[in-house]
Design brief:
It contains ten helices and twelve strands. With about 350 residues, the protein is an alpha/beta fold.
Length: about 350
């Protein structure tokens, strides 16, 4: 099983020093009944300039929570209880909320999942984009208006349509407008949360191609949240596979696709159609992800795992390096006494 056919050989675009480093990020949510939901536990990965990193996994595994934590936009019942978020070696968790506002939009920005909900329905598109520019005191109103025209044309929207409202745009145009808004203050890191959700296949391809062109032009780092493995294969350099709020596997896209180490990653790939094997029966993963208020004591994937061994039920595996720059959290990847392939 190897859907690596979808991957082409990519020249490395990764610099030695990460632009953004997430280290042991842990997030809890306090529920109305007083219980604690352990949304993220010790999540770590690096983002490099010019790189696209994909966060992959089933719904509820912590992908969007990771982005919201890095942006420090968690809801009021969310708490970052551990870890570091290093941007150019500055720990963003050490900043006050007022200081953090200077980093949002100017240094890192976000394309939210639903453009219709993210855009203000009673404001014209050009006003929404210029508001972000003026708010951060980057330009005056006249300069901001010219910047808006440039941004709209960059994402493929005629500047004459800037004075229209979100409801006058198609779904694809609203997503393009959200991308223009996210680029308003020239950030270095762009977070894209399911940017192709609810779009038809042709429009999805156009949005992804747009992101790639913008990245090449501006040298952006992009962190892409998706459950679509085809999207990951097409645009991502590095992949973080998440399950139950933890990192299950982390490495380059070609390694993840051609030599997956974690049983969860293997199952995900086996459930994805391979055009080279049109008659192949797709696999499915039995069961559902764990409830974050009632996590199993051992490996979080153990109840659904087709390769589980005794230790998996009682001891959580460590994220270890299985080969150069390829990491997996599975007892089968550890020393022979706990299991081996």
């Amino acid at each position: 099983m190897s859907p690596g056919w979808w991957l082409c050989a990519r020249a490395s675009r990764v610099a030695d020093t990460p632009l953004l480093s997430i280290r042991n990020l842990t997030v809890d949510f306090v529920l109305p009944d007083g219980r604690t939901s352990h949304a993220l536990e010790e999540v770590s990965f690096d983002v490099h300039a010019g790189q696209t990193l994909g966060l992959v996994g089933e719904s509820g595994c912590g992908k969007t929570t990771t982005l919201m934590a890095v942006m420090r936009l968690l809801p009021s019942n969310g708490r970052i209880t551990g870890g570091r978020i290093l941007y150019h070696d500055l720990d963003l968790l050490s900043l006050t909320e007022r200081q953090m506002r200077a980093y949002r939009w100017k240094e890192m920005a976000m394309v939210f999942q639903s453009a219709m909900n993210a855009l203000n329905p009673v404001m014209r598109i050009d006003d929404q984009i210029s508001e972000a520019i003026v708010l951060h005191q980057l330009m005056n109103s006249a300069q901001a208006a010219r910047r808006v025209d440039t941004l709209l044309e960059m994402v493929g929207i005629a500047k004459e349509r800037g004075d229209q409202y979100p409801h006058q745009y198609s779904g694809g145009m609203r997503q393009r407008a959200m991308i223009a808004l996210s680029l308003a203050c020239s950030p270095s890191v762009l977070f894209a949360d399911e940017p192709t959700t609810a779009l038809d296949v042709m429009i999805q391809a156009q949005v992804l191609e747009l992101l790639k062109k913008i990245q090449e032009k501006l040298g952006l780092a992009i962190v892409l949240v998706t459950h679509d493995l085809g999207v990951v294969a097409e645009v991502c350099d590095t992949v973080v596979v998440m399950y139950g709020g933890k990192v299950a596997e982390y490495g380059s896209a070609d390694r993840i696709y051609n030599d997956p180490q974690h049983p969860y990653t293997q199952r995900l790939l086996e459930s994805f159609p391979d055009l080279n094997k049109p008659g192949e029966v797709l696999s499915s993963i039995p069961g559902t992800p764990p409830r974050l208020t009632d996590l199993p004591p051992g490996c979080r994937f153990e109840p659904r795992c087709h390769k589980r061994i005794d230790v998996c039920a009682v001891l959580a595996p460590r994220l270890i390096e299985t080969s150069a720059a390829h990491y997996a959290a599975c007892h089968l990847c550890e020393a022979p006494e706990t299991g081996s392939r």
